[in-house]
Amino acid sequence: MIRVISLVVFLLVVLSEGVSDAQTKIRAAYGTPSLSQVVFPLGVQAGMFSRHGLTVEPLYIAQFGFTGGPQTVLARISGADLITIAGLNRLGQMIAAHPSIKSPQDLIGKKVGIGVFGTTADYGMRLGLRKLNLRPNKEVSFIQVGDVPARIAAVTSGAVHAVVLSSFDKHFLDQHGLRLLAETEDIDFMGSGIMATESFARANRDTVMRLLRGVVDTIRFIKTDSKRTIELLGKIYREHDHAILARRYQTLLGVYPDYPLVSVSSIQSIIDVLKEDGKIKEAPPAQSFLDMSYLRAVEKERQK
Hints:
Blueprint: H1 2-7, E1 13-14, E2 24-30, H2 39-45, E3 54-60, H3 69-77, E4 82-90, E5 93-97, E6 111-114, H4 120-131, E7 141-144, H5 148-157, E8 162-166, H6 171-176, E9 179-183, E10 188-197, H7 198-203, H8 205-224, H9 226-237, H10 242-253, H11 264-276, H12 293-302
Helix pairs in contact: 2-8, 8-12, 9-10
């Protein structure tokens, strides 16, 4: 578990040599370029953080950073000084199958592809299979395939018979002739969360508040400036097809609430799954993984 903790990239790491009177430089990492985590690079390009005196360097770190709930819960239980300060209360995953799979029962004895064990995609596949009354790693075998392009290649070639993808990427279904088998949208589960070290947050409340103001401003920007948001999405995803970008934008509108407050039940769901899978025996109260006070303070500011 030490290796897991060492790989976690904390969202708010102040670069002491980069602090000036005008701007505070921080690094904000995100684990995947999916729509659920695009708020950092999009907000930087739109200038939403600089207006709050922050120079934010968005870093793409595979699997860690702006990360999934299970990794964060496991890391904190193992001693990491992590706290969740904002996030999404849904897993946002779907199971996409090869066209030869006509029903869930056709997956029995077959292989399914995920990214990496222990990540959001892993839990998305597990919970999706349970909705289909299939037993993970008993009736269906898990294979670590890699990132989204690798998963698409694996399922279209028949190397695996189904893969887990973000629910925000439904355009892949039509694009590659895949069949939607299950979604996890109705499951209370923190799929993505914005993390900080608890010690840093307490010692640097102003910086945390400014970052969250930038996040809230980015969400507002997304919802009010469709033209500019679509332009920035094209740069981030290196996509030139306006129809695809328009679909991404319409999906993005439904991803973030105005204030992405994480519920205690979303953390409790993670704890319950980890216990069921034998990953943990006991855990602190779900509330201890969260500190929504910073975001609630931003919400109160905006409502005055």
